[in-house]
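We give the entry.
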Amino acid sequence: METQGAYPAAVGIAVASLTVILLVTPPMWWHIRSRNIGAASVIIWIIINNSMTFLNAILWPNDNFDGYLGQGLCDVEIKLQIASQVAFSASFACVLRALATVMDTKRMVVVQSKAQRRRNIAIDLSWCFGIPMLQMLFQYIVQGKRYYLFGISGCVPGVTNNWLTVVLIMVMPVVWVLVCATYATIILIRLYRYRRSFRTLLQNHDTSKSRFLRLFLLCIIWILGNVPVQCWVFSLSFSVPREPFDWNEIHDPEELSQIIAVPSLGMVLYDRYIWLASGILMFLFFGFGTEALQMYRAGWNAVGIAKLVPARFKGGNRSYTSENRELVMKRAVLKSVGDDSLFSMSTDVASTKDSDMKLAELDQGSTQNSV
């Protein structure tokens, strides 16, 4: 057979997916360190799917299927793809649920108990990873073929077209998108209702206005883009005639062992572009924040690149001695005295002025010591 070169789309999608993986990795680590399970899960699923896109474009850059047909690899990939259809929406719902909690004045607490923290972590993990794993089991129930293998795009799950597929596979992504839309509506209502105390609510939950708005705007953009896609995909399932559900026929060993190769003719499946766009959006919202820049700087220091950069571009070069650390702790304690009004919803002018005078004395003393 004549050797076929790689499609330009294969080269482009491989480079783009690898670039997205590298761009969103620092924000992922920052969200993990901040224990922001929802946002970290969103990025994890972006990395997983773009990694599959990159690998598939490398293995099958054209429509030549004479070699490796993905045995083993595709069996894992199709399960992850089915899980991702629900996991991505559920992870965004997890983020929006946390943002709605910030704006919930009726259940506002200053410090969560251990039981509350464990409960929230359990809910986040079940939404982001538990329910998607359940989808993997559902896919086996309606799996008609082992998988389809497309040029460039690689492995694609094969499911039968019956009513059970609609219930188990097609409905769940739509349901989670509606959950996201519901939470987003609740947040918009609370933002309008509590707009005057917005900053206080954020400080009570140890978050910033910038971080809150970035997460919320990202979710809104994703909802506006994903609702039409999910409705379109769901409507396609009704455009073809239904097959009767027969367990013995669907799970016939001969049928389940079939690998169907499909020429791509240089085209890439649409969902690969969705994962690319999602990664780019995540980087644009969180790749230039203060937290990400600090992580970049730490990475430069670790690999020695910071030595090649002028000092004025490295950020602060303070050497934190034990005295400086003690000073920072004192400043934090004194500052908290002046910020007690954030939690009590009242202003104590005298205590604030007193703490500010003490902070000024500490600042003056630290300056003299440094000289």
Summary: DSSP finds 14 helices and three strands in the chain. Residues 319-370 form one domain.
